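Why Major facilitator superfamily (MFS) profile domain-containing protein? Reviewers of the renewal asked for a concrete example.
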Amino acid sequence: MLNQIYQRLQKLIIKHIQLLLSVSFDQKQQPYQTEPIYIERIYIIINKISKQQVFFLQIIKQLIQSIFKFFTVFIGQLQWRIWENKFFWLFKNVIQNQQQTTLILCYLLQFIFNYIQLLKMISAILLTIRRIIKNQYILFFKFSKMIDVQISSLQQNRDRSFIIIVILILMANASYMMMIPLFPPLIKEKGFTEAGIGIIMCFYPLGCILASWKLGKMHSSKKMILQGLIGQLVISIILGISYFLNGALFFILSSFLRFIQGISNTMIQVPSYSITGHLFSEQVSEKIAKLEMACNFGLVCGPLISGVLYILSDIYNFNTFQYSLYLVAFLYFVITLCVILFLDERIFNIDQQEQGASINYYEVFQIHELNVTFTSYFFLGVAAQALRTYLSVQLLEVYNLDDANSQFLFMIYTIVSVFGAYYVAEQKHYTLNQLYTYCLYIGAFSLLLYGPSQIGLPQSIYVICFADIIRGVGVGSAPAIMMPLIVQIMEKHKHKDQAAEIGSTLLIAGWSLGDLIGPIIGGIFIDQVGFDKTSVIMSGALFAIGFIYQKTSHIDQEQQAIEMQILIH
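Here is what the prediction returned.
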């Protein structure tokens, strides 16, 4: 079957190339004879019209005069006469060369016809591949029955949907991270200060916050995910065009687009985490950690793609900022097609029937453990984002790195974060509460290293690289722990039905709140005392938050007491 399709496709391509190479303006040449009969009829009609040249030209001349008289008000009395004569002269030449015009039109129709045929052939190939994959699934399940392994269709759909969700999380974070090394330097190039950079960048998390509280209970809508993908696609294109703007217009448009971009990103991520929590309730820690691995891998790919584009821009002379965004738009288009074709919504409809009442977050935050955990997670985001937003400017101005090396350095943190999330998924020795406490302390130590001049260390790029490694261990691993920790707290307080929605919402909302407030606070402090002193201040604040969390969170103590009672009985 595939060989037949390949041969038909090969013949169509050869015919298409011959058609393009055979275009000639010889009046004796006839249209391509293998095309449908309607092209020959069009050819005859055009010839009949062209024979009535005088009558036809008079009609066209009157039509052109009427059109340009209508536009006289806009282009002036003198100008419309000139343009009228130009258009009429052009059309007259085309009509007098009717044989050439007829051939051009016929070949254009032939090109369109062949292009449609080619699209049909590609669709047939994709359909055949899909049928082959389906047949392979059938053979696999027949074999599994032979060896007494029972695999349900629900399990197939769960696994396939999880792969799509992993791709969504990866792309959402890759597109976000691509802008971190590129956007702040561009904003500063437009004449804005660090505070202005912080204000523009904070509109993204603001959109995430406002959207996340509303989307937790709407996770079963495939349509919502598609709307988020299309929103990201369109905004990426418009944001690339905004490169040519300056002043207040650039500031307002960039802020608005970042706000809508945050909403679109949340429409992708919140449903993805919530779906995972429902589909894999018995493996929520492992699956969420794997999603965080995909998230961190996306954070690696973002600066990597930006750095490669920056190197290519020196060779081929194009704008890195714009082409990065256009590439993001193309990738979102491809992922949108994957979601339409492969994300099975029937699973989500099952979950939708199982949902309970709406979530009352006022009652949720009455739970002491949840309140303490979410507050510490929020402050972790504030301290981390207060420095990361301005790190690219610091690398360019203080450490004399170019854009490409700056973007590659951003990858250190995210690469380490991937291994941190993997460790969280696989380790069995520590509780989630213990791991999270360690993350707070390690993250605080990493922020201290970003200000080497304040602690007696040389102001060297190697110190910054080491700080990125430590930050990846501490700050980068925290999101992989947060949602399973919240789910554990909610299940302990008999809110198992709502645990996935609350966990996904607070995971996105908590980090987005930090991402919103952190750049503003960081911009104010850096303007006043400089980057190095700000890093020391943020480090001290995060040490204090870790100490308070360790003393006020009693999750492990209560869990150990329950286990002790079970052993006694």
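The chain has two domains: 2-123, 153-568. This is the kind of structural detail the renewal will allow us to pursue systematically.
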